[in-house]
């Protein structure tokens, strides 16, 4: 049989701090495939840290690099669990790429839980200044940005293993 369409990728989307990278690693282990963190792919391709790209070239340059990296990752033949950056869903082209090439899972969490998870991370350029204020503003700005996903899971009170299990079960159906 010459079916040249690979198994679908699993694309994890959601606000920063929802657990995309952590869930991605464990889900890949569970599915027996590799994982790819789009932010790490951008750093590798650009030879520059995310915060540095934001400060030296601006958010638009970062978003362009993000789309290129996402396109490259999703065009691979081997099935991957792909953890995207929180803002990757903002570009319509990115949403289209994700839907065309993967099973899209949105991870969500309570705002206070997100603040607790991300407040100590210096590598989050969009959170400079008052973290609580920035998180609430970004959440409001992106209120419906993740609505296109095939599956949405609130990670606020779930262990990583529970999230992985829910995704795996949804993929079987």
Automatic annotation (TrEMBL):
Q: Where in the cell is it found?
A: Cytoplasm
Query: Known catalysed reaction(s)?
Result: shikimate + ATP = 3-phosphoshikimate + ADP + H(+)
- Cofactor needs: Mg(2+)
This enzyme's EC code(s): 2.7.1.71
What residues bind substrate, as annotated?
A: 39, 63, 86, 142
Listed pathway(s): Metabolic intermediate biosynthesis; chorismate biosynthesis; chorismate from D-erythrose 4-phosphate and phosphoenolpyruvate: step 5/7
Mind telling me which Pfam families this protein's record contains? SKI
Species of provenance:
Paenibacillus rhizovicinus
Query: Which gene specifies this protein's sequence?
Result: aroK
Q: Where does ATP bind?
A: 17-22, 124
Q: Name one GO molecular function term.
A: magnesium ion binding
Q: What is this protein called?
A: Shikimate kinase
Q: One biological-process term from Gene Ontology? A: aromatic amino acid family biosynthetic process
Q: Which family does it belong to?
A: Belongs to the shikimate kinase family.
Identify the CDD domains for this entry. SK
Look up keyword Transmembrane and say if it applies.
no
Q: State what this protein does.
A: Catalyzes the specific phosphorylation of the 3-hydroxyl group of shikimic acid using ATP as a cosubstrate.
InterPro entries for this protein: P-loop_NTPase, Shikimate/glucono_kinase, Shikimate_kinase/TSH1, Shikimate_kinase_CS
Q: Which PANTHER family match?
A: SHIKIMATE KINASE, SHIKIMATE KINASE 1, CHLOROPLASTIC
What does the entry list as the binding residues for Mg(2+)?
A: 21
The cofactor binding remark recorded in the entry reads:
Binds 1 Mg(2+) ion per subunit.
A GO cellular component annotated for this chain's UniProt record is: cytosol
Quaternary structure? Monomer.
Keyword annotations from UniProtKB, A to Z: Amino-acid biosynthesis, Aromatic amino acid biosynthesis, ATP-binding, Cytoplasm, Kinase, Magnesium, Metal-binding, Nucleotide-binding, Transferase
